[in-house]
Amino acid sequence: MVRDKLKLLQKDPSKRLGNGSMGSHEIKHHKWFKPINWKRLDAREIQPTFRPEVAGNQCITNFDKRWTDMPLLDSPASRPNTSANLFQGIYLCQACSLFLMRNSPLIMVVGIIKSMSLLATPTTCPLTQGIETLLP
């Protein structure tokens, strides 16, 4: 019986039980799982044989002491180098914003923004040179 269980422990996922051409039927028809009434299980009509007692979301009484007694280690995130340019290669492109607005349900907003002459230099963004021709 132990040997049969060890056969199920496969490092290669393609050789694992249930991964063949029969899929989950391979598991359901395996000799260990054959006695299970899968329809009743799926309908949640079968009561579990063990139901752990839980005192709340933070309850750890069902875990082994070797895990709960381990010290908690905090690894704080490193702070970014303040001398580095965090936004290098990122452009604030009003033409891009307007193009996206024009192609969204908010077409009227484009006209308002354009009339406010916020589109002063649309060709300053290398990604959208000439995009102003697409705006209304």
Automatic annotation (TrEMBL):
Among the GO molecular function terms of this UniProt record, one is: protein serine/threonine kinase activity
Matching entries from PROSITE patterns are given as: AGC_KINASE_CTER
Q: Does the keyword Kinase apply?
A: yes
Q: Which residues form the AGC-kinase C-terminal domain?
A: 34-102
Signal peptide (from-to): none
Query: Where does this protein have coiled-coil stretches?
Result: none
Annotated InterPro entries: AGC-kinase_C (IPR000961), Kinase-like_dom_sf (IPR011009)
This chain belongs to the protein called AGC-kinase C-terminal domain-containing protein
The species this protein belongs to is Ambrosia artemisiifolia
